[in-house]
Design brief:
- The chain is mainly alpha-helical and about 140 residues long.
- It has one domain: Arc Repressor Mutant, subunit A, CATH 1.10.10.
- Helix content is about 60%, strand content about 10%.
- β2 and β3 form a beta hairpin.
- It is globular and about 40 Å long.
Length: about 140
Amino acid sequence: MHRVSVGLHEIFQALSDPTRIRIVQLLLNSSTPLCLCDFAEALSEPEYKLSRHIKLLRGAGLLSAEREGKWIYHSLVKEEKYIKSVMKSIELFPVSAPSSGDLLRLNKRIARRSGGKCKEVDELKPEKIRNKESRA
């Protein structure tokens, strides 16, 4: 585990964006680490945009990343007492309508995983799934 030394202002600055809050909410409600394609589908945002947000959250010491082959799985850093407090305060806020939609899309995506891990990105894109279903 790589320990990052950050200031309080950096943590709150990282959490000052609605998209980054949505990323954290997904991780708080997920029992498994998530990859970039999970976030992209759940949040209906492009990967390049989410990649920047994830990098900022990692830089603030809120997320950790673990590489498995070509996939990088992200999870919340929960070891530090002050981070636990910040995460608890986020959990206490009611889930907004967009966030509940994010969670539904994430759960559908995780259900399509193979052995708990991502499949090829193209296989999981909604338009590919619709095409496969329409052929059947």
